[in-house]
Amino acid sequence: MSLVFAGVCSHAPGITARADLADPALRDPFYRHLDVMRQQIEAARPDALMVVAAEHFGNFFMNNMPAFAVGMADYYEGPIEDEAWLKIERRRIPGNADLSRRLITGLLDEVDVAYSEEWKFDHGISVPLHFLTPHYDIPIIPANINCQGPPLTPLHRAWAFGEAIRHAADALPERIALIGTGGISHWPATPDSGKINEAWDRDFLDRWSRNDRAAMTSYTNEETYRDAGQGGFEIRTFLSVAAAAGGKGEVQFYAPIPIFAVGCTVGIMSIV
Amino acid sequence: MSLYYLQKLLYVLNREPKAQARFKDECEAVLAEYDLTDEEREALRSHDVGKLYVLGVNGQILMHFAAFCGIAWADYLQKMRDGTKDHGPVRAGVYTMTTGLDEKVAGL
């Protein structure tokens, strides 16, 4: 079979951690759209959900930082965060080591990914899963792009990673759903938390929706840092999904929610 | 500058419940195992999140340490502002504050 679903969503820890501080008029429509995405993923009947996230030093550190890493285990654990703080209970989450191994084998034909037989999910994966697979009944294939520890993975390589995901998924008999989680502009975990560059976000989402590779890979890191903050580096995950899906994107929800520290986003992309 | 080891200690602490228990029970022994400056050791010992922020600890690492120390989100943000006020701008990394000392973007 092949890639059967492609989408993107935000993963900021505030989405669950600070739920009670958010305006319900903003929060609840966002949650509803995440739930629509859950239904869309379920309707695609995936055998596994690959989550391309921007890991935040939950597993990888500057002693050995991979540009790309993919999980290859039968189970994972998450969230790594304090459960009471994130408001998500820590638990074991199913994986599929055999499927991961075959996917990674395909990826390695094009991109030098690291693999990991253990992985502790942080909010980058745990927050999306809380909404998208609330019963934890779909095996997860976690993936990480280095968006945190410079030198960062270049944008054109994030694109190549997405293309490799597509090719590798298409060569498998299983049905693979794919989501990218992260950004867009935000200044997380700093005193600036809540700052959001809505104009920049909307311009980026326009480029993403058009699946305009040149426009999406044209940002320099300096420009992104200046206009979209250190959290803006996470556009890499959205790029990889666009490269994998190849079609047009549809932003189903976008709204800056400062208490969540990000422009909250839910988008799907057609697979062509 | 031993920011690398300062962050390494916090990275291990954030992901290992056993390391968290040990940090509580034998803090000095843990601190002695890493190549840290006295300033860094004191900031860790006293849970000085503002100082750690100024020293350049990545926010994705620091916010976990703040939660581990029982510091509420609003207090975490304020401690970083206070740290900047007391010790000057962030000295390394990409988590420098860009808003004003009295600015509370999300109301916290």
Protein model, in words:
The complex is a heterodimer of chains A (272) and B (108). Chain A has 272 residues and is of the alpha/beta class. Chain A has helices at residues 14-17, 24-43, 83-86, 97-107, 123-132, 155-170, 198-210, 213-216, 221-228, 235-245; strands spanning 3-9, 48-53, 68-71, 75-78, 91-94, 114-116, 140-145, 176-181, 246-257, 262-271. Chain A has a single domain (6-261), classed as Protocatechuate 4,5-dioxygenase, Chain B. In chain A, helix 6 (155-170) runs parallel beside helix 10 (235-245). The longest helix of chain A is centred in the N-terminal third of the chain and has 20 residues, at 24-43. Chain A is globular, with a radius of gyration of 17 Å. The relative contact order of chain A is 0.23. The mean pLDDT of chain A is 97. With 108 residues, chain B is mostly helical. Chain B has one domain (3-87): Orthogonal Bundle (Protocatechuate 4,5-dioxygenase, Chain A). In chain B, helix 1 crosses helix 6 (59-68). The longest helix of chain B is centred in the C-terminal third of the chain and has 15 residues, at 73-87. Chain B is globular. The model of chain B has no long low-confidence stretch (mean pLDDT 94).
Give the arrangement of secondary structure elements.
The complex is a heterodimer of chains A (272) and B (108).
Chain A: E1 3-9, H1 14-17, H2 24-43, E2 48-53, E3 68-71, E4 75-78, H3 83-86, E5 91-94, H4 97-107, E6 114-116, H5 123-132, E7 140-145, H6 155-170, E8 176-181, H7 198-210, H8 213-216, H9 221-228, H10 235-245, E9 246-257, E10 262-271
Parallel strand pairs in A: 1-8, 2-7, 2-8, 3-6
Antiparallel strand pairs in A: 1-10, 3-7, 4-5, 9-10
Helix pairs in contact in A: 4-6, 6-10
Chain B: H1 3-15, H2 17-25, H3 27-32, H4 38-45, H5 49-55, H6 59-68, H7 73-87
Helix pairs in contact in B: 1-2, 1-6, 5-7
